[in-house]
User: Which sequence fits this backbone?
């Protein structure tokens, strides 16, 4: 029935700021306009940033994780772009090494959506 993911929708308050943030994160831009912006996701599918007066739904904090080849380089890039990296556990130094062997950290977009950055 399902053959893959077409796109994820994240509701954002400031479409322009979110566009800039996701571009700085390193997401390849596909297309968009006043109705929203689409970015390519690793492995297929797309992420749509959809304008909303309220941003993300109250109490909802999606956590989307993407894989990178060089976590340390990604961390430097994200910090230079002004992103605050934090532990998926909520506290401690970043990146963290998980019990299952990955190294990771998280960042938040302008609306509070959490992105996990992972290196296997």
Assistant:
């Amino acid at each position: 029935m399902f053959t893959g993911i077409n796109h994820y929708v994240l509701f954002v308050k400031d479409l322009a700021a979110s566009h800039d943030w996701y571009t700085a994160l390193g997401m390849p831009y596909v297309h968009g306009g006043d109705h929203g912006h689409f970015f390519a996701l690793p492995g297929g599918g797309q992420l749509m940033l959809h304008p909303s007066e309220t941003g993300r739904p109250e109490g909802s904090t999606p956590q989307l994780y993407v894989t990178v080849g060089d976590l340390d380089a990604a961390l430097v890039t994200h910090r230079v772009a002004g992103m605050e990296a934090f532990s998926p556990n909520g506290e401690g130094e970043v990146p963290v090494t998980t019990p299952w062997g990955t190294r990771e950290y998280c960042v938040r977009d302008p609306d509070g959506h959490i992105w996990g950055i992972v290196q296997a």
In short: The mean pLDDT is 87. Helices lie at 15-25, 71-80. Residues 27 and 79 are 16 Å apart (CA to CA). The longest strand covers residues 7-12.
